[in-house]
Specification:
8-stranded mixed sheet; about 25% strand
């Protein structure tokens, strides 16, 4: 019961490989370009489909290729998603069959880099005004997806969605935020875990005044932004290239949280004096963990209850491929204190590799070989030497339940470098039609 007149785009391109709908064989994406080029076709198909389904007496809504209303429609979405997950699972290797073998090296894992934090939004425009006018950020890229992400990048919502990467520079060089918008979802239950994100700007006073003038609540140096997320405004020092200073998380067991990040993820404990003082932080209730180069996590425990849900989003970390598999192996051992949300998946779409993994050939244009050529200088390496052409993704949870996406940095960094489109324009007219159900 799904209108299928959209253009399925099964490319292995940078935008697809950038972690969110990386399941090329299972999760087709709908980009704005394809959506716009096929709008008239979709409208005609939607009308025809509606006439053919009148007798079924079920509420439905033609929404750029997705049925979005009614119990029967929801059942169809669940069935579609279950099928999607089943196909994706076919590309999940056993630990001993990984294309790239784990290397448990402290030095290698230390080269990991926090890439971004995912937050949910009910109003993309409001968020963009907030981040651009107050913090001076810019849109790095924007993508539309017709199907929910197979590894719940958009949260546990069976709906079309979009993501907007926003920050200060290319994603392979700096931290950023991912704004996920789920069509049809107008409210998220606010949690208590993700307390605030600290961002440094050249003129903090000016940023705070701008926030107040736009109607946002300001408490000291903290702004309550759209969708109840809070951002602390700090002074950008001359020797600091990274604008994001830290992400503050409330935890239930401070020592358990530190053990997870240090022992399982290879982070190191840092000095609290490097973090600007805050009423929430004290020497006996706060720890700082992170990698040598990257945005750290400030973990703290207080009297408040820790409630973690979809609103908390997800932390994405780019990890060297061999080290990622080593972290995954640690998670499988069950001694880390964390858990696995989505098992590791490896993606390399060369036909020979798909045959080796028992997967059907892809019917894509351009071919997988052409797409991979953009990601590697030599796209014809033998299967046993595919590290830089193979994307690995695993979704885990820490000791408190915060979600973490581990993605292999060799391929991810190349992918987001190619996907970097700071001059890309969001088609607001198209989004308005989609939200209105046209």
């Amino acid at each position: 019961r799904r209108v299928t007149s959209t253009v399925w785009n099964c490319r292995v391109s940078a935008s697809l490989w950038a972690m969110d709908v990386t399941f090329v064989a299972a999760s087709p994406t709908l980009t704005q370009a394809s959506a716009l080029s096929s709008r008239s076709t979709r409208q005609a198909s939607s009308a025809a489909s509606y006439q053919s389904q009148k007798h079924q007496k079920q509420p439905w809504h033609p929404w750029h290729g997705a049925v979005v209303l009614g119990v029967a429609a929801a059942t169809a979405r669940r069935r579609s998603r279950a099928t999607c997950k089943a196909v994706v699972a076919a590309s999940r290797p056993a630990l001993g069959d990984l294309m790239v073998k784990p290397v448990d090296s402290k030095e290698l894992i230390s080269k990991s880099r926090p890439a971004h934090w995912v937050i949910r939004t009910t109003d993309v425009k409001a968020n963009l005004r907030f981040f651009t006018r107050i913090f001076g950020m810019k849109v790095l890229r924007h993508e539309e997806f017709e199907k929910p992400c197979a590894i719940t990048c958009n949260g546990e919502f069976d709906t079309p969605w979009s993501k907007t990467m926003i920050g200060y520079g290319p994603e392979d060089e700096s931290f950023c935020l991912e704004l996920t918008y789920n069509y049809g979802v107008d409210n998220y239950e606010v949690g208590t875990g993700l307390t605030h994100v600290a961002v440094a700007v050249e003129n903090p006073e000016e940023a705070l005044e701008a926030a107040a003038s736009m109607g946002y609540a300001v408490d000291g140096d903290v702004i309550s932004g759209p969708d109840s997320y809070k951002f602390r405004v700090l002074k950008q020092e001359a020797d600091q290239a990274e604008h994001f200073r830290y992400v503050a998380l409330r935890v239930q067991d401070l020592q358990a949280a530190v053990r997870f990040y240090c022992d399982a993820c290879g982070m190191m404990e840092m000095d609290l004096v490097d973090i600007p003082s805050h009423p929430m932080f004290a020497n006996d209730n706060t720890k700082v963990v992170g990698y040598a180069n990257g945005v750290p996590l400030v973990l703290f425990k207080d009297e408040a209850a820790v409630k973690i849900g979809q609103w908390e989003g997800r932390h994405a970390i780019a990890v060297p491929g061999q080290a990622l598999r080593a972290i995954y192996k640690r998670m499988l051992d069950g001694k880390s204190g964390g858990s696995i949300l989505h098992h590791i998946r490896e993606f390399n779409e060369l036909p020979a590799l798909r045959r080796m993994r028992g997967l059907p050939p892809m019917t894509c244009s351009p071919s997988p070989e052409v797409q991979l050529k953009n990601l590697r200088q030599n796209p014809v390496k033998p299967p046993e030497d595919q590290q830089e052409g193979t994307l690995a993704v695993a979704i885990i949870k820490d000791a408190d339940g915060y979600e973490i996406c581990l993605v292999s940095s060799e391929t991810y960094d190349q992918a987001v470098r190619l996907a970097y489109k700071p001059d890309a324009k969001i088609d607001w007219e198209w989004r308005g039609e989609a939200m209105a159900g046209r």
